[in-house]
Each structure stands twice: as structure tokens, then as C-alpha cells.
Amino acid sequence: MVLTDSMPILNGGLIFRIFLVGIMLLAGSFGLFERALHHDASDDGARTIAVNGFAVGESFYLLQ
């Protein structure tokens, strides 16, 4: 496929994939945060779990 100046950088399929992965990472991190709070973790601990879950999710997506 030859790229030209008139071709968009992001096509519809790529934009959909970006939003889908973002929603999945958001839902997973929020789920981990809520689960940690439900199991009597502190706010700081729940935030740490959520951020670590987000980072692991991004890593798996990057290596896919």
C-alpha cells in the first residue's frame, strides 16, 4: 500500500480499536479499585492496585 499526503493517519478501524482498548483498561482499573476498597484496602492501596493493573494491561497490549 502506497501512502500519500491525502491519506489520514488514523482510519476508522484504528480509532475504534484505540477507544475499545481505552474503555477496557478503564473498566479493568476501576474494577480493581472497587474490589480493593470492598476488601477493606486503604484508599492509597486501592489506587496503587488500580495503577499497577492499568500498567500491566498496557504492557500486555503493547506486546500483543
Question: In terms of topology, how is this protein built?
Answer:
Layout: H1 12-38, H2 43-63
Helix pairs in contact: 1-2
Radius of gyration: 17 Å
Which percent range describes the beta-strand content?
under 5%
Distance between the termini: 23 Å
- Count the strands? 0
Brief description of this entry?
This protein is mainly α.
Account of the protein in words:
With 64 residues, the chain is mostly helical. It has one domain. It is 75% helix and 0% strand. The longest helix is centred in the middle third of the chain and has 27 residues, at 12-38. The model has no long low-confidence stretch (mean pLDDT 93).
Defining key terms:
64 residues, mainly alpha
